[in-house]
Write a structure and sequence with these properties.
With 256 residues, the chain is of the alpha/beta class. It is built from twelve helices and seven strands. It has a single domain, classed as 3-Layer(aba) Sandwich (Rossmann fold). Helix 3 crosses helix 9 (191-197), helix 4 (124-131) runs antiparallel to helix 8 (177-187) and helix 5 (135-144) packs antiparallel against helix 7 (162-171).
Length: 256
């Protein structure tokens, strides 16, 4: 797996004991997890911020389904000789994390799903824009990915342009990546069955102002887990780790 990029700090992965695996969402890469990755590295935790195949700095063919992505991720962890791990995912990454935790059984100690829902429906209009590589797809994902306040520039962390940075990140993705990711999300149909098989301690972090995966669309998923923890961030939209980074980090620290 020489073509795969994962970030574990400037010195690389120091050990394989219980790493925290961070999985990005549609068209993105590991950099969306910069704050928590840096925090846990400072606490001497093993961390893997992974760019999925065809995303970010990783090469290789795009994976076509959420189960395929989860199987690939487990294969990558096997390649690194990782046994127990915790997995954190945002949006599409949350579905990959869910499926991975289900397949891994007791190897997965903690599962964190950020900005999630099941089913993760995608409109035909958005899919069509993405399939034809139209800029409107990125505009919709960027605009709908934040609360109304965030669109106007509200940010408790100075120096960040939330919508601008998200748009630039999505624009960096290669042709076909956003479409394939959205298609994989829309076609994933085994979330409830997979959730019922998860033995990991599970946390869902949801944004009350999330227009892409509103909290009410996670209700059936929540019911399928065994005693999950649920945190709802009152003023945040879908891209929670950018819009409410400190609160998301606080919740991650509690469970990880």
């Amino acid at each position: 797996m020489k073509n795969i990029y994962s970030f574990s700090g400037p010195e690389g992965l120091k050990g394989t004991k219980h790493p925290i695996v961070f999985i990005h969402g549609t068209g993105m890469d590991h950099t969306v997890w910069t704050l928590p990755i840096r925090y846990f590295l400072r606490k001497d935790r093993n961390v893997l911020g992974i760019d999925l195949p065809g995303h970010g700095r990783s090469k290789g063919k795009l994976l076509e389904s959420i189960p395929d992505m989860a199987k690939w991720l487990l294969g990558y962890l096997d390649h690194l000789k990782v046994n127990e791990f915790s997995v954190v995912g945002h949006s599409m990454g949350s579905l990959i994390a869910l499926e991975t935790a289900s397949l891994a059984e007791k190897r997965a100690v903690n599962l964190v799903m950020v900005g999630t829902a099941f089913p993760m429906a995608v409109s035909d209009v958005l899919l069509d824009y993405a399939k034809n590589n139209k800029p409107e797809a990125i505009d919709i994902l960027t605009y709908m990915g934040y609360s109304n306040q965030a669109r106007l520039g509200r940010n408790t962390n100075p120096g960040m342009w939330m919508t601008g940075s998200t748009k630039k990140l999505l624009e960096k993705s290669s042709k076909g990546v956003i479409y394939q990711d959205l298609k994989a999300c829309s076609e994933y149909d085994s979330g409830l069955e997979s959730a019922a098989k998860v033995s990991a301690t599970t946390l869902l972090i949801l944004g009350k102002k999330d227009f892409l995966t509103p909290p009410f669309k996670a209700k059936d998923l929540i019911k399928s887990f065994k005693d999950p923890l649920v945190k709802e961030i009152k003023h945040s939209g879908h891209t929670l780790m950018v819009e409410s980074p400190n609160k998301v980090l606080d919740y991650l620290i509690e469970i990880l």
